[in-house]
Amino acid sequence: MTLTLADARIIISAAEAKVSEVGQPMNIAVVDAGGNLISHVRMDGAWLGGIDISINKAFTARAFNIQTKDLGDNSQPNQQYYGIQASNNGRIVIFAGGIPLTRNGEVIGAIGVSGGSGEQDQAVAQAGAKASLT
């Protein structure tokens, strides 16, 4: 099971709705079960540098089936994943905003969000993730 383009559009729409509350333009990416990009949106005014970050957050969340904020907590010095961000040709992101998406206990893709603070990115990603469950 994997996400479809129709699923990605629903997820991105929910994330965009949360952005309107946050007030910070974002980059929002959705990847499928294989970690491949399905869809990406760069909202008007969102940082150009956030494009790759959002895509890589989604990739990271799917590659390790863990929220990027949690991976970040476990990749600090003296932690089990220290240095992991140097793997996968530098694609691994270890700060908030990437969430694996599941249905019936199976990971079917991930969302990655970039453009605000870690808390803002996480909140927008959570809104998109919640929409993936419906």
Automatic annotation (TrEMBL):
InterPro entries according to UniProt: GlcG_carb_metab_protein, PduO/GlcC-like, PduO/GlcC-like_sf
Gene3D superfamilies tied to this protein: Haem-degrading domain
Domain of life: Bacteria
Residue ranges crossing the lipid bilayer per the database entry: none
Record protein name field: Heme-binding protein
